[in-house]
Design a protein that fits this description.
The complex is a heterodimer of chains A (117) and B (111). By secondary structure, chain A is mostly beta strands. Chain A contains no helices and 11 strands. The termini of chain A are far apart. The model of chain B has no long low-confidence stretch (mean pLDDT 95). In chain B, a hairpin with a 6-residue loop joins strand 3 and strand 4. The radius of gyration of chain B is 13 Å and the shape is globular. In chain B, strands 1, 3, 4, 7, 8 and 9 form a 6-stranded mixed β-sheet that branches. The chains are: A mainly beta (117), B mainly beta (111). Chains A and B meet through strand 5 of A and strand 3, strand 7 and strand 8 of B.
């Protein structure tokens, strides 16, 4: 069955960096775009970034441009989110998501990122 | 890019039908048939219920249906069941600058 497993979350001070990983299995990972979506406590999901199936194109929401980088390693069925210059407002559960549809169908269980001094 | 607007809450009794609206603009919902709906239980990841306005992924009951008119999309749940008690979020393509825009969310309560 399809599985997406995020890792790398934790507590980090403002201005520091964190790298999230997401290992995928159960579907043809290398054929599909993959996303990071975050959800701050008590709020709805917020799309963060997407990477094309081959890594050729990447898009970000404005508030993370220049600070976050999405990447993928198709040989390891894994995507990454490098987060630099973290801010308190980046505190959220980060989900990786993807699949064959335009709308992300497969979701991980989420990784909690807390930015706090 | 602002979030799509949804009612904060909708309620209904078992067996009834409810409809959740999702209002965007001519730049997102009104311009593309790329509206999806997600169901989310507390502490769980969102689950895709509707994509491309009115299509259901495999395994989603046909009690769930989607539609769109102008800048507003809608999710209808017919024959409401206790397990439908959850949060629901719409999502639309927002253009090249922000490909995905989520709604503000609607809490569905089954009375």
């Amino acid at each position: 069955q399809v599985q997406l497993v995020e890792s790398g979350g934790g507590v980090v001070q403002p201005g520091r960096s964190l790298r999230l990983s997401c290992a995928a299995s159960g579907f043809t990972f290398s054929s599909h775009a993959m996303h990071w979506v975050r959800q701050a406590p008590g709020t709805g999901p917020e799309w963060v970034a997407v990477i094309a199936f081959d890594g050729s194109n990447r898009y970000y929401r404005d508030s993370v441009k220049g600070r976050f980088t999405i990447s993928r390693d198709n040989s390891k069925n894994t995507i990454f989110l490098q987060m630099n210059s973290l801010r308190a407002e980046d505190t959220a559960v980060f989900y990786c998501a993807g699949g064959p549809l335009w709308a992300p169908e497969y979701w991980g269980q989420g990784a909690l990122v807390i930015v706090s001094s | 890019q602002s979030a799509l607007t949804q009612p904060a809450s909708v309620s209904g009794s078992p067996g009834q039908s409810i409809t959740i609206s999702c209002t965007g603009t001519s730049s997102d919902v009104g311009s593309y048939d790329l509206v999806s709906w997600y169901q989310q239980y507390p502490g769980k990841a969102p689950k895709l219920m509707i994509y491309e306005v009115n299509k259901r992924p495999s395994g989603v009951p046909n009690r769930f249906s989607g539609s769109k008119s102008g800048d507003t999309a809608s999710l209808t749940i017919s024959g409401l069941q206790a397990e439908d008690d959850a949060d629901y979020y719409c999502c639309s393509y927002g253009g090249s600058s922000i490909p995905y825009v989520f709604g503000t969310g609607t809490k569905v309560t089954v009375l």
